[in-house]
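Human: Can I borrow your eye for a moment on a structure tokenisation matter? Separate attempts, laid side by side, tell us more than any discussion would. Could you pick a protein and write out its sequence and tokenised fold? No explanation is needed for now; the record alone will do.

Assistant:
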Amino acid sequence: MMQFRGLPTILSKRFFNGMRFISSSSRKEKSFRKMYQEFWTPKAINKPPYDHFTQIGDPVLRTKASKVPEDLITSKEVKVIAEKMVKVLKKFDCVGVAAPQIGISLRIIVMEFREGLKEHFSLPVYEARKMSTLPLTVLLNPSMSVTNYQKHKHPEGCMSVRGYSAEVERYDSVSLKGTNLDGIEVNIELSGWNARIAQHEMDHLDGKLYIDIMDRSTFMCTCWEAVNSKSGRVEIPFYK
């Protein structure tokens, strides 16, 4: 039996069939009993798939994600992960999520550029960035090939590098090939901003972030003006 030095001598402990029994007679000992029980009681831990975005520094974002096994592509477990990704995408009103961003190191991406996002940009910006609607798309084990090697540089952010942005060069057009949740092979041709979304999410599956290829001179805090106007009293939320 392990001895714990410094415990009251009146405190008796014994282990029987894996069960722990503690008897005590004083208020002080009862207080210690509570502390002792809390020490051994498993704490509730938030486990992936998360309802939030993992942040830079989390090893999962720097790990090359594993392929979804062929025999699990249509499984309930994979469907649950994909549904959580869609939930997070809509919750944070963003355009793309890769499984590592919710703590799951699997090659799954979700993309959507809904019509309502057009209201967030001026017409010149919308057109200059070649933005267009993209229906909700879930791809498992996607592969990508470049179809137009012309590059464009535009500001880009990431929900896993919250509160910052920088200009990043991306290819004009790409082709994505993958499998949907029904196990059907899908081919998608993307150009402009939607091609950028695809390249960004594919990078996540290989443990890369936009900061690895950004124009470092353009890296900035997206709320720097608010920081100054509010004397630094600004918070960047990681939940919603």
User: Anything to note?
Assistant: The chain is about 25% helix and 30% strand. The chain has two domains: 11-45, 59-229. Residues 1-25 have pLDDT under 50 and may be disordered. The longest helix spans residues 76-91.
